[in-house]
C-alpha cells in the first residue's frame, strides 16, 4: 500500500477531503495500537505466566496516571498552537509547543517521583496480593522509569498530527508496534527476562 506523505493544505483543501484525510490515518493508528496491546497480552500470557498478565492489567492505572497528564497538556497546547498557526503567528505557536511540552514533562516527572517514593502503598492500594505484588512492582517500576520518554513521544504525536502530518504519526505507530513486538519476543522468549522484559520492550519501543 502506497501511502503518500502529502501535507494537507488547511487553507485551500475542502473540509470533506481534510476530514477523510485525518480520519483514515487516525483509524489506522487506533487499529495498530489495539493490535499492539493485543500482542502484548499474548506475549506475556504465553511467555511469562497468567499471573504476569494479571499484573500487567493491575498496573494499568499507573500507566494511565502519566499518559492522561501527558495528553492533558499536549492536547491543550496543540489546540492553542493550531489556532495561532491558523492566524499566521508561527512564533506564538512555537511558544505553546515549548511551554506545553515542558509543563507536561515536569508534571510527569512529579508523578514518577511520587510513585517511587510511595511505591509500596500504591501497589497495595491497587489490590496486589503476595503473588502479584512482585510482578506489579517489576512491571510498574519499569514502565514508570520510561514515563518521561513515553510522555514526550505521545505529546509529539499530537503536535505533529495537528501540524498537518497525521500519516507521519500513523507510520511512527506502525514502526513502534513492530519494534515492540520484536523486542518483546526477544526479551521474553530468547533472553527469558519475564515481565521486566515485556515492560522494557514496551518502554524502548
Give an overview in words.
This protein has helices at 15-47, 50-58, 60-87, 90-117, 119-125, 133-145, 147-162, 166-190, 194-204. The radius of gyration is 19 Å and the shape is globular. The protein is built from 9 helices and no strands. By secondary structure, the protein is mainly α.
Which parts are unreliable, with pLDDT below 50 for 5 consecutive residues or more? none
Number of helices: 9
The whole-angstrom Rg is 19 Å
- Sketch the major β-sheet: none
SSE string: HHHHHHHHH
Relative strand content: under 5%
Q: Total strand count, please?
A: 0
Alpha-beta classification? mainly alpha
Note the gap between the termini: 24 Å
Question: What is the global morphology?
Answer: globular
Instruction: Please give the share of residues in helix.
Output: over 70%
Mean pLDDT: 88
Short description:
83% of the residues lie in helices and 0% in strands. The chain is mainly α.
What key phrases describe this protein's structure?
single chain; 205 residues; mainly alpha
Question: What topology emerges from the helices and strands here?
Answer:
Elements: H1 15-47, H2 50-58, H3 60-87, H4 90-117, H5 119-125, H6 133-145, H7 147-162, H8 166-190, H9 194-204
